[in-house]
Amino acid sequence: MSTNEKLSGGGRTGRDWTKHIIILAILALELLPFYMMMQISVKDNAGFLQNTWLPSAPSTWVWQNYVFAFQIIFPYVANTVVVAVTATAVGLLFALLGSYFFARYQMPYSGFFWYAFLLLMLMPGVANIVPLFALLKSLSLLNTLWALIILGIAGSQVFAIYVLRNFIEDIPKDLFEAAEIDGATHFQQLINVVIPLSGPIIGTLAILMFLGSWNDFLMPLIVLRDPELFTIGVGLIYLDGEYVKQWGQIMAAFFVASLPLIIIFLFCMKLFVRGLSSGAVKG
Amino acid sequence: MTRERVLNLIGFSLLIVCFALSVARIVSAKWFTKTSSGENIITIRLAHWQLEAGVREAFEAIGREYEAKHPNVRVRSIPIPERIYLNWLRTQVVGGTAPDIVEIGQGITSDMLARYFVPLGDVINKPNPHNVSTSLADTPLRETFFDGMQGGFNSDLLEYFGVPVSIVTVRIFYNLDLLKKITGNESIPATYEEFVALCEKVKDYSLRTGMPIVPIAGSKYNGPMLMDRLFSSQTQRLTADFNTTGEGGAGSGRIIERYFAGKWQTTSPEIESGFALAREVGGYMQPGFMQLQRDDATFMFLQARSLMICTGSWDVTSIAQQAAFPLGIGPIPLPTKDHPRYGRYVKGFVSEAGSNASLPFGLTKSSKHPEIALDFLLFLGSKAMAKVFTDVSGWLPAIVGVESSPRSKGFALETAGFSGGFVLGNLGPDTRRVLDTNFYRLIDPSSSSKEFLEMLNLEFAKTFVSDQKRATRSRWENIIRSDSLLGASSWLAGGHISESTDSPTDEDRFLHASTINDRAYYSDRLVLDQIKKAQ
Amino acid sequence: MVTKVYGRKALLEWKLYLFLIPSLLMVGVFSYFPTVSAVYHSFFRWSGGDAKEFVGFDNFRDVLGDQVFWSSFVVIAILVVANLFKMIPSILIAVLIHRLKSDRWQYWYRVLLVVPMIVPGLVTLFIWKFFFDPNFGLLNAALDTLGIKTLLVHLDQLCGWNVFHAGMPISWLGEPSLIVPALILWGFPWIGAVGVLIFLAGLQSIGSEIYEAAELDGVTAFQKFLHIEFPLLMTQIRLNLVLMVIGTLQGFGLMLLLLGDNGGPGGRGMVPGLWMFNRAFTAGEFGYACALGLVLFVFILALTLINNKFVRVDK
User: Fold this and answer.
1) Are residues B239 and B330 in the same domain?
2) Are residues B106 and B77 part of one domain?
3) What is the pLDDT of residues B303-324, one digit of tens each?
């Protein structure tokens, strides 16, 4: 992008202030849950009732809420990290391999496979839950984290392959051919040509897949029995099922549950924002 | 390297570190499967939905006691929120991963029991081995329970499946501080008349001081609890009239049959009076209470915005822990026979003698160590552990001769009295649904007209039939499931209808039924026949 | 583009097929097989274990007569329409950000947009559930402070809804008639970060000359939107539309967590997906649930095909 290219449209003159105000108002509302979570997490129920909207003074902050939250949520976070990272890493690997197959050459029957994949994109997952459960049972995968990892991998393939295929197809053929001439196998071509160029898109896909695993609660709810194995999704549901809710503690727990994401986001912020807006995800 | 790349790298490596730590955690948990002496550690899991204060801790305490006696066993209790209990359990039993011991309830059907739970069989007739050094050393297990272990009995399958652990009763909780402020003393009403007087005093007080205090906190959960009991005081005489077996009560089949025999309608005076009574008490609850949940009413009571709340002994520890005021416990205030308006249909105080023990725990077929699980189950139902249970949780114990915790004083069973009347909601799920949908209109003074009750009459006529049909069908299925062996052997033994009858009627079959379930099934069919005749 | 390959070259490149295998295996076993199994089991009475009883089309006949199922379609139809309207704020904000002159501000707004994403969806859901709480909830507190509550109470007395009472907290999830409005209200102000960023990406392709020409013609801001931005956003909007409809039709996680497996009081929050979950995991009728799922799938497929045929974009 040249430095002169404008990203923005709009007229030269114009009342930008109104735009700013509207955007800020909407964004403030959007961020409201986040703000509420933060400020309630350091109050107890009594304090919250007295002072609902505004943050309380730092001297009155109830840190026990966070102690409680860590004790409860930390195991769940650990489990979810394992599931999410493994599912994302392996899923990306499989998707890269698969999309390379489709994008590099159009092999015989690749059309057939491609439509098979596309059809899956349309298929609603809702009808699958029951037989999936039965399948996991026959594979003795119930009540394990492996089940969640495998489901995470399988579920993300279609979207990832779709996106990656488009991307790889756009890579100039000469790069591949040059590598081939140098005697690289397909696998080496994948590593040396595709991966360096697809940094942002892999990053974006990784984040989306990670988020997907992180937010999943339905399958963990059905599959897991032991509290030691619970992921965040299930853990939060159980927390919500308590009869007497100490909202401060619960909000603190929510925050702790978001913590890893917040940390990742802080570091990889630019990557994500750029990846999505560079049109990597085309219609 | 650009700043961005450095940041990305840091983020990425943090992630890897987290990942490594988490994996290490999981793997290490799996390694500790052997005790110091080299035996394999066996884990027994116990699932329940009692998230109320004190109960979880009680089960944990019992678990620890067992572990102390058996070093190679680990007891883990898994509390599941009520709302997802049935879903969760169903996936577990179908998947074969159910915990060893599971609390029976929250909609577990006889069907599920038959398929996935182990019937206790002969164990109930022998003394509990864990009662050895107590006064119950020679008493058969079944008789060590208050209710003769009825709470663990399933009448469809004619088997004992559960070991109950507590007895629950419903009472009215009072905020004693507030009570003193309003009336000047701490006397708790025992009858409906006194209750109403108190409610009126509360309303006066609220008007006078301008503080928004409601006499009794209501919700979708707490409201019907009180209203059903008051309703049943109005159908008391009626139900006693229907009763033909001398048990004091009447089954839903009998009540439905009496309806079609014309002995009662929705417009009958008893029913109208019941609704009126429910309406009157609903008027003392906060407006729109039927939309609120259990926690909302509890919250209101704890915030001293209501003087009373109707709930059960299962809430005593939770409420006592959170209340900033002393708690008073009082009985459900029923109208006496002398009440000018409601007294005429009342027979007398309602006895709780027929109450079944609650919190039954059963053994699942997916248990990997059934003998040890059964042993723990018996341990759970032993006298010593009942004491631990009541001390830690504050709930009533289910075992005879165990002194209950002082916290549960006031909840003890009141056994003197008569049996209560029937309640519409217990006649079947379809009937209940119609009742639920129309409940708010029933208790709203402005909309309960004669026509409305007539309309309800017609609706109920339909739902009674569908509920009875459903009950009959499910009884048939239970027969097939459990009685077939019994029926076949008694058939072989000659207890069948003689071939001389060309087409035996339901009445014939009823009279010649070879098993209890058969008899009940044909009795149900007779009810359906009556209904058809009456229509 | 992709070079077609056949014959000897294909044989030489046979190793490429290996690349496809892991993906195909995963998807085949864990996505295709369950679907086939679902179709198979929908003809049985099955409670999830090994025992099953063939009942032919009985399940489907029951589905046709299933009141709860078909009335749940009404609910979901309402939600789809509501979600349609909920796409508007995303488009609006994308356009507004796009029209800003300062690049720096654009960037920071993009960042701020992404911030809500770091709170996991489940947490947002529970925070909203907390907002709906009658006693602690912020929605009621906000309505009280803004005076909207009194307005609602007056309207109630006028129209006889019998829903809003003075002095009584509004139970958004407890009052049957309020459930659907609560589901629609959820997520206010309805901005999806991913959506907005995608729209922004699409808008970037608009050159500034077009805007200058429009300025010269004296076109108003709204007309600018109609004629310049909207047509170019159509591809994204169309894609979003398809995904949204499919997602909403299947979705039930929100309802499950907010209302429980019965769709809340009066069952007003019952949607097809939730009913399927209920039949399978509450009532244990797995075969029937498969039949329900199949019918839902056919429905969605039909809608998608119609969508593809009729919602065309002319370049």
Assistant:
1) yes
2) yes
3) 888 999 999 888 888 888 888 8
